[in-house]
């Protein structure tokens, strides 16, 4: 039986006193109602920025406590389904927002209709819906402020690989893991250059599994027979280097491959991606086919 977390059980910032919205057993399937990134505040394109409560941005559902998850474990979160619960998606941009802020003299909001699995950008342009979850995160003992910023524990990763069928692996540092989920997108471009993607409310179905006493260069994703290492750092160069180093470490674990051969393999067939450029911590990933690993890493 699936357990439900409603929109009323959302949080906007980390608080040590916050109680779990739900407690589940290992292997449970849960359904969460996710608010949109703006918490449904934007109903028209002419809305003035002064009318927006910025403290309500990026609400998350949770936290979810997983029984018997203890420090030193990994939490495997499989995205079984993403169901969009609106026919409208919203984007926001303006001065001092994103890397192209100098090109935008005025604040701007766009609302686009979704029909037949397409975002109606204009009469001539329709964009395919590619649903993703932007934020997945376990809690750490020394929680960062704001807590949605990407770290080794997850956060706003904004990876296009966080879609239906993908499994993301996150570390457990507090008992229960305490998983937070939010920021669903109707589609995700390669690299968030402004404050938002195609923001939209949704219901997501997740399967939660504990991997006892396992280590991994988190966050890491397995999707469509690929392994994806993600890293977030102050610069995109340092994020890319960390993601590459993590992948090299997985390839060379237990002397499966030399460092030289791992680097050559990534040069030949690694797929590099910029996940986001907007956040103070910028995020990059490297993808490699699982067939290159003699054994499934960290499983």
Automatic annotation (TrEMBL):
Sequence intervals crossing the membrane: none
Domain of life from the UniProt record: Bacteria
InterPro entries: FmdA_AmdA
Matches recorded under Gene3D superfamilies: 2.40.10.120, Acetamidase/Formamidase-like domains (2.60.120.580)
Example GO molecular function: hydrolase activity, acting on carbon-nitrogen (but not peptide) bonds, in linear amides
Coiled coil: none
The name this protein goes by in its record: Acetamidase/formamidase family protein
């Amino acid at each position: 039986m699936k357990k439900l977390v409603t929109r009323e059980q959302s949080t906007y910032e980390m608080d040590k006193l916050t109680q779990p919205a739900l407690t589940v057993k290992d292997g449970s399937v849960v359904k969460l109602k996710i608010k949109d990134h703006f918490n449904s505040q934007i109903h028209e394109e002419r809305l003035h920025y002064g009318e927006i409560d910025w403290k309500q941005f990026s609400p998350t559902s949770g936290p979810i406590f997983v029984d018997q998850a203890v420090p030193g474990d990994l939490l495997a979160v499989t995205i079984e389904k993403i169901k969009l619960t609106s026919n409208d998606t919203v984007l926001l941009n303006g001065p001092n927002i994103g890397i192209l802020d100098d090109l935008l003299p005025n604040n701007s909001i766009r609302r686009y209709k979704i029909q037949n699995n397409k975002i109606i950008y204009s009469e001539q342009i329709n964009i395919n819906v590619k649903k993703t979850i932007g934020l997945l995160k376990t809690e750490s003992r020394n929680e960062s402020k704001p807590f949605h910023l990407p770290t080794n524990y997850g956060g706003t990763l904004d990876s296009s690989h966080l879609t239906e069928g993908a499994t993301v692996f996150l570390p457990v540092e507090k008992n229960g893991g305490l998983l937070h989920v939010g920021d669903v997108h109707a589609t995700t471009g390669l690299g968030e250059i402004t404050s938002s993607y195609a923001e939209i409310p949704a219901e997501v179905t997740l399967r939660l599994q504990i991997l006892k006493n396992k280590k991994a260069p988190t966050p890491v994703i397995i999707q469509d027979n690929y392994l994806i290492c993600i890293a977030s750092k102050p610069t995109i160069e340092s994020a890319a280097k960390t993601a590459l180093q993590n992948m090299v470490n997985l390839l060379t674990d237990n002397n499966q491959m030399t460092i030289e051969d791992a680097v050559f393999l990534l040069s030949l067939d690694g797929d590099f991606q910029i996940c986001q450029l907007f956040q103070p911590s910028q995020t990059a990933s490297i993808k490699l086919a699982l067939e290159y690993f003699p054994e499934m890493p960290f499983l």
